[in-house]
């Protein structure tokens, strides 16, 4: 009867040992640790990660077998996902020990070059994508993605349109300016006719000519005497037809200047400080 030392030197024993190492089984003293953080050797971490990759490759090839039952396919898919989680633990430990960073955010692709489907980290490989319930899940998700893409494609038409979309270049179009001026003159005449009808003027009465305001000069304050006198003349003509209005009521309001506004604000701040420290004088 052969002793253990002689068994260890036999060709069959060494073949079985190499076969077990290739399959990731190994001997009891050379098994992969359960906790990746327990391994403090960078070389061993790289070795165990490579072993897990070989196991994943074998199981992914096996899950393509058409002779497997649905239960076996589910079990194989669960084992592959379990190995993927374990691989991430070893990669984290490799990074912690100062090794290479294998945790690249890259999409996992199948044999056809398509991204492996899955949700929340759980992936489906091979025949697992055709299991009852899984196919319907992916079809519903694909329908939702198509609807989101349609909505995004619709709103993309309104992105990055440039100044012409917002009408900032309309002032450069002379034809458009002429059309706007004609429409503005027509609206102004209709407003004059409505005013005459409201004031019950007859057709024989001649209304004073009300000039169309200039949009460029309307933003400026009337500082010159000529502009003030012109406005006063229009107000006097309009007040002559309306007995209950005076000239001052039809004058354009006089906007305060910047210096006057600063004086008003300064006065209000002084009054607020006096009331804060000395109280209200009226009380």
UniProtKB/TrEMBL annotation:
Keywords noted in UniProt: mRNA processing, mRNA splicing, Nucleus, Spliceosome
GO biological process assignments: generation of catalytic spliceosome for second transesterification step
Subcellular location, record wording: Nucleus
Source domain of life: Eukaryota
Pfam families cross-referenced by the UniProt entry: Isy1
Keyword Nucleus: yes
Keyword Nucleus assigned: yes
InterPro entries (alphabetical): Helix_hairpin_bin_sf, Isy1, Isy1_sf
GO cellular component, one term: Prp19 complex
Family indicated by similarity: Belongs to the ISY1 family.
Name of the protein: Pre-mRNA-splicing factor ISY1
Native source species: Pterulicium gracile
